[in-house]
UniProtKB/TrEMBL annotation:
The keyword Transcription appears for this protein: no
Matching PROSITE patterns: FAD_PCMH
Domain FAD-binding PCMH-type: 69-238
Gene3D superfamilies associated with the record: 3.30.465.10
Recorded family membership: Belongs to the oxygen-dependent FAD-linked oxidoreductase family.
Record keywords: FAD, Flavoprotein, Oxidoreductase, Signal
Name of the protein this chain belongs to: FAD-binding PCMH-type domain-containing protein
Amino acid sequence: MKMLSLLFPLLAIALTEASQTPLNVPTVPNDSVQLCCTALSEALPSLVHLPGSAEYEHQQHTYFILQHTDIQPSCRVSPATTSDVSFIMTTLTKHSCPFAVRSGGHMTWAGSNVVGGVTLDLGRLNEITVEEEKGLVKLGPGNKWSSVYAAMEPYHLTTVGGRMPEVGVGGFFLGGGISLLSFQHGFGSDNILNYELVLSNGTILNANASSHPDLFWLSNSEAQTSASSPALTFAPTS
């Protein structure tokens, strides 16, 4: 089987915020968070979910670890495009709102949800584009590996991806990415050619070996940055 390169949107910035908040300590939403949730609701009404809504409760109960379900953000937002991510990041930065980012919700650590803040759920960033001639795949960070492998199978392609079908693409690559193919092709992140990033000020850019190589290195090294990645490109293998 051939392996493809991957291009994938992935929010790399917010993974520190939730981990600094104790899992079992409820907090009262502060004014900045209320401003964020209100501003996001007014601008992106179909993408923002408040406590008690069906989508909020659904997202809260689809984490792999039960303790993450008990963490209650003030609102959840589900960006569908890179432009959505840009607006969300600009809003969160403007009001200094604590936030967390969820790709697949499979990790055991606290980075995918936040008490009293804003949680970004990347489930709608689920693009899968196979460019067979170029040997590239573009993925959204909201994909799970079951969907990625199914989309690549008709092309007789595979990649250095997750070992479990329910693992999210975003968290897998930000964590380096240990695969059944790693002994031949390294970590998953070693096979990424390009990150589409959204900086904390809303700027959208591409980071790769020749353009913004510092951000490319930071994203590949699992360093915590102030940039979010809505798309990623990697190369397949045979």
